[in-house]
Amino acid sequence: xxxxxxxxxxxxxxxxxxxxxxxxxxxxxxxxxxxxxxxxxxxxxxxxxxxxxxxxxxxxxxxxxxxxxxxxxxxxxxxxxxxxxxxxxxxxxxxxxxxxxxxxxxxxxxxxxxxxxxxxxxxxxxxxxxxxxxxxxxxxxxxxxxxxxxxxxxxxxxxxxxxxxxxxxxxxxxxxxxxxxxxxxxxxxxxxxxxxxxxxxxxxxxxxxxxxxxxxxxxxxxxxxxxxxxxxxxxxxxxxxxxxxxxxxxxxxxxxxxxxxxxxxxxxxxxxxxxxxxxxxxxxxxxxxxxxxxxxxxxxxxxxxxxxxxxxxxxxxxxxxxxxxxxxxxxxxxxxxxxxxxxxxxxxxxxxxxxxxxxxxx
Length: 362
Ligand code: PLP
Description:
Strand content: 15-25%
Low-confidence stretches: none
Distance between the termini: 27 Å
Structural class: alpha/beta
Strand order of the largest sheet: 2-10-9-8-5-3-4
CATH class of the largest domain: Alpha Beta
Number of domains: 2
Bound molecules: pyridoxal-5'-phosphate
Shape: globular
CATH architecture of the largest domain: 3-Layer(aba) Sandwich
C-alpha cells in the first residue's frame, strides 16, 4: 500500500506538470470543439499545423532562440541523435571532439565512433566522474567538425554550470536532461538536441535546434526522415510527425511561460536541489561524491554510507509515496530527479523521509 500524495523521482520518463495532464485529459476526445482528438488530426491540416507552429513559437520565445536557428521536432529519441549528428554534420573520415563526463557521453562517443574519428578531448574518468573537466585541461583537435558535450549527466549527477568556448568549432550539446530547466545562450551552440522525456513531454519526441549554416546535405545513406536538411526544408512535413507528443510539448511550453519562464523555473530548481544537497551533506548516513560546483540540479545522485541499507531505504520510501529513487543501473546508489514539475512539497517529503530514516539508523 503506497500512501498518497505520490512523488515520482524517476530520471526518465520523468514527472509531468499535473495541470498539463489535466488539460490533455479534458481535450483528449474533442480538441476545442473540432470534433476530433489531436491524435486523429491530419498532420497537414490547418488545426494541427497551428498547434505545431504555436509550439515552435513558444519554444523559440522561452529559450530565446535567435533568428538563424531552426527548431526541428524529430523522432527516435536522443540516442538516435548520437548517430544522426555525425551523419548530418560530418563527411566520412572527419574528426569530432567529445568530452566524456559520464554514462551518456560515453554512449554518444560509442555511437558516434561508428561514423567519425573521435577525439576524446577530456575525460572525467581521471576523477572517477566526480567533476566536469576544466576547459584548461581539454585537448581539442583544431580540425574537429564539432565539439560534443553532455550538459547534464543524468546517471552521474553532473552538470556544466559554465559554457565551454570552442572558438570556430561548433559546440554541440546533448541537453536531454536539463533542457528547459534553465536559460541557455543558444547563440553559443551549433546544435542542441534533447529527448523529450524529462522536461518536455512524451518519450520519442526529440528536439533539435540547429544553426542554419550547419544544415547541410546528410550523408547519402542517412534515412531522409533523419536528414536535418530534409526535415528543415519540409517544415516538419516530410513524414508524419509525432503529432500528439508535439501537442503535449506545446502545453508544457505554455505551462512554463505561466511559471514565469526559464529564469523563474531555474531559480526554483536551484532552491529545490540546494535543499536536497544540504540535507545529504548534513547527514552522516548520506553522501554525494560529486564536486559541489558541478552537481546537477536535475538529477541528485547520492548513496548511503552503509550500502546494505539501500533496499530498505527504497522500500520504505516507496511505501511513503516517494517513488523511483534508485540510481541508474550502471551507477547504483540513489538518485532523486528534480525536474521542473517536481513541486517543493515533493522535495520537503523526501527530505523529511531521509531525516527520519537516518534517525532510525543512527
Ligand atoms: N542523453 C541523456 C543525457 C539521457 O539522459 C538520455 C536518457 O535518459 C539519453 C541521452 C537517451 O535518450 P533516449 O532514451 O531518448 O534515446
